Amino acid sequence: MSIYFDNAATTPPRKEVIASIAHVMEECFGNPSSTHSFGRTAKTHIETARKTIAQLINAMPQEIIFTSGGTESDNMILHCAVKDLGVQRIISSRIEHHAVLHALEALQQLFKIKVEYADTDSDGRVDLVHLEYLLKEDSTKTLVTLMHVNNEIGNMLDLNLVGTLCHQYKALFHSDAVQGIGHFPFDLKELPVDFLSAAAHKFHGPKGVGFSFIRKNSGLQPFIHGGSQERGLRAGTESVHNIVGMSTALEIAYKNLETEQKKILEVKTYFISQIKKLFPEVKFNGLCSDMEKSTYTVVNVALPIPKEKALLLDFHLDLNGIACSKGSACQSGSQGGSHVLNALQSETHKEWPSLRFSFSALNTTQEVDHLIQVFKEFVSE
Prior knowledge:
Layout: E1 3-4, H1 15-27, H2 37-56, E2 64-67, H3 70-85, E3 89-92, H4 98-111, E4 114-117, H5 128-137, E5 142-145, H6 159-168, E6 172-176, E7 195-199, E8 210-214, H7 240-255, H8 257-278, E9 283-284, E10 298-302, H9 307-310, H10 313-319, E11 322-323, H11 339-344, H12 347-350, E12 354-358, H13 365-380
Parallel strand pairs: 1-11, 3-4, 3-5, 5-6, 6-7
Antiparallel strand pairs: 2-8, 7-8, 9-10, 10-12
């Protein structure tokens, strides 16, 4: 039996998405920059996808810039904000994705900007009082970058509240919304966000494609130089099939949103109840057990298993066909552990193995039952 509980790392592409990608690759292979009919057909597919995505999140088509994914989108926005908009200070948190944290380190070296971090508590909540203090204390042109949904612990940020606070102090606001787009509704005409990042493979689309939302008349200049693609901001021949696949995936995600939210929430709720029965001392990392303050797709647990025995836990789960994550998938090969969990956990809980289980509408409570049985066998050995 194979069970996939690692949807925060990537989701399996939907059949409709695969079909749309295959169709474009076979029938619409022209270069979108070419002026002949093959190129015009490809260009039409791109612009139709752009309009579809913009409509789904209530943005303007010209505000959607296609990229290779969330990491490029984050880097593009942060780098260009400093280079083109005169941003001299960036405020973030210590528990952002490394696509943001490592970009900030690079910007410090390249441009000597000031980087400050808003405090977070032991549950990973961003201290908005401290954020306001940082915004108030310095009138330097500032950008705030805080993620919408934490990819490891599932905590959700109130984008409206933070965006309003940023704009009150004339700061720009960027959010890495990679774990949110396709899972929650967005109205970017109303939401006070200047920039936003998204990746298709988090909502059952293809890997290697995403988009940046860049508010109209932002003043950003090219990030990748070469051709005039993507309003001149991101040169390079567009990946037409992936862009169409992403548009198809997002359209289906929002069409089925209410139904799939309910189904996934049932699986998460059931998982929490069963893991509590098996491990009464279980520690839920972050706010993932709070259904109001976390995404319905993620649970991250620290399990009271002795350190020596825990070394075999990943192997045991994999051997039984269960895929999950020790933390962020981008960190799974690192021996340093999760920077998010290191920032939150007590010394006691750092000794326990932490696992992230992330769900999609393809998962079932029967799969949770199998997982619990595998855990029971492991702890009784």
